[in-house]
Amino acid sequence: MLSISEYSEMCHLSPQTLRFYHSEGLLVPADVNEQTGYRPYTFEQVEQAMLITVPRGRGMSVKLVRHALDKPDAAPALLRQHSAQVRHQRQAQDEALSDAREFFNSWPEVRLRHIPEMTVVSKLVPGPSAGGDQYDWDEADAVVTATVQDVVRTMESCGAVVSGTPWRT
Question: What is the DSSP string of the chain?
Fold first, then answer.
């Protein structure tokens, strides 16, 4: 039997990782001393640790590793699934890096434009009622539209000419 420190040194797994694998049911020690917490492992469990360490070291989840160990025939399909997920994540990361590179290489040009003097009118739109779990976008749109129409009517009643399409933010 190997002690947890001997085992962790042989398998390159920290004692914390071994305890985690034990709690997840991946690598259960041969015995656990209830008084000392001492966890001895057998030499046969070294192979099991290596079977866990390789896919875990490649980012495979504990759940998938457990499934692969429980059903070795499913392991190739699980590895393909994991490989596809890694490729997808890698592609998303590459796209994000490319976007960041493009952003930093092409700062927007500052343009100064002169526009004629104008009066801007705004009105606060009441928000949704408190306590709702979901936001009702149709209701919000209707409230905003009604508020914009009210502002336009008020301005026109004062003799102002509304130029351009009212906008909202």
Answer: -B-HHHHHHHHT--HHHHHHHHHTTSS--S---TTT----B-THHHHHHHHHHHHHHTT--HHHHHHHHH-GGGHHHHHHHHHHHHHHHHHHHHHHHHHHHHHHHSPPPP-------------PPP-PPTT-SS--HHHHHHHHHHHHHHHHHHHHHTT----S-----
